[in-house]
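About this split. The held-out portion is used to measure sequence recovery: a designer receives only the structure tokens and must propose an amino acid at every position. Recovery is the fraction of positions where the proposal matches the reference. Here is one held-out target exactly as it appears in the evaluation file.
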């Protein structure tokens, strides 16, 4: 079987304005957008017909973003700024059966901190991220849960979404 990927992109703006949502999520399967969520409507919206068949069975790992956002918001308040935070995470099931995964945080379009699932360490891209790195590495469960999400939970949902897609295509 060919390689497949599932990725999540989160965006949190400092405040809702000019009709823009404060919180936005878009999910991609193999680089195709399949689901979106925004804080204005508070609804998950399938972007492809076969995801409508999935009903309410969506995985939106808000817990990752929400817990981290508390830490990042504290840092933001200390710095006295209003930042647009981005999170990009996902997984890949390769042709040879191996698995990949990534978890990156950014603000205002710049890299901030990312997770190295092989070493269970956080890699900083900005000096301000050092404080966050220390806090997140203080509790090894956080890194372990991130690794489990990328290598197991995300892969299981990737396979589930592929099965929805394949079932619909078979019917056609």
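Reference sequence for scoring:
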């Amino acid at each position: 079987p060919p390689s497949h990927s599932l990725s999540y992109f989160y965006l949190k703006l400092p405040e809702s304005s000019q009709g823009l949502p404060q919180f936005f999520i878009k999910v991609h399967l193999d680089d195709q957008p399949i689901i979106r969520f925004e804080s204005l409507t508070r609804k998950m919206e399938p972007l492809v017909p076969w995801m409508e068949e999935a009903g309410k069975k969506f995985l939106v790992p808000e817990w990752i973003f929400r817990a981290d956002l508390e830490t990042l918001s504290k840092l933001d308040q200390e710095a006295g700024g209003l930042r647009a935070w981005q999170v990009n995470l996902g997984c890949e099931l390769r042709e040879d059966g191996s698995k990949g995964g990534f978890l990156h945080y950014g603000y205002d379009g710049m890299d901030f901190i990312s997770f190295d699932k092989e070493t269970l360490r956080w890699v900083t891209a900005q000096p301000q991220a050092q404080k966050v790195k220390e806090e997140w590495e203080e509790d090894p469960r956080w890194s372990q849960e991130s690794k489990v999400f990328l290598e197991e939970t995300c892969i299981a949902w990737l396979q589930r979404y592929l099965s929805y897609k394949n079932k619909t295509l078979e019917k056609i």
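Annotator remark: The longest strand covers residues 4-12.
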